[in-house]
Amino acid sequence: MSPMRALRQLLHPAGRHRAPAGHGLLDEDQLDGLLEDGDAEENDNRYCGGCERTTFQRVHADGSHTCWTCGTATAGDQ
Q1: What is the model's pTM?
Q2: Fewer CB within 10 Å, N- or C-terminus of the chain?
Q3: pLDDT one-digit tens code per residue, 6-21
Q4: Residues in CB range of 70: below 8 A, 6 or more apart
Q5: High-pLDDT (> 90) share of the chain, %
Q6: What are the residue ranges of helices labelled H in 1-78?
Q7: Contact, 55 vs 68, CB < 8 A?
Q8: How far apart are CA 51 and CA 69, in angstroms?
Q9: Lowest-confidence pick of 1-10, 17-26, 43-52
Q10: How far is CA 39 from CA 30, 52, 56, in A?
Q11: Are 66 and 58 spatial neighbours (Cβ–Cβ below 8 Å)?
């Protein structure tokens, strides 16, 4: 799929896979509220000791993070 087509699908989905009405993107206030309540977790690129490189990881409310690639959990901000 071309990058332009992917962008078009993201902005104006069509077909049976489109999001139901009323389920749009979150605005910044809604996202901040979910992150503060712990209902959503932040994601960031961080160093993973298991993969021995920087990978995309979910960051938990307590500061620990888990690698999406290998599942290695790291305690606190290091």
Answers
A1: 0.50
A2: N
A3: 777 666 666 665 555 5
A4: 48, 50, 51, 55
A5: 9
A6: 3-11, 28-37
A7: yes
A8: 8
A9: 17-26
A10: 11, 30, 19
A11: yes
DSSP 27: P
Spell 24-40 as b/e; 16+ CB within 10 A means b.
eeeeeeeeeeeeeeeee
| Alpha-carbon dihedral sign for residues 35, 39, 40, 42 | positive
* Token couple for 3: 């990058």
Measure the CA angle with vertex 20, ends 25 and 29; round to 5°.
20
Start-to-end C-alpha separation, the chain: 38
Q: Which two tokens stand for residue 16?
A: 């049976």
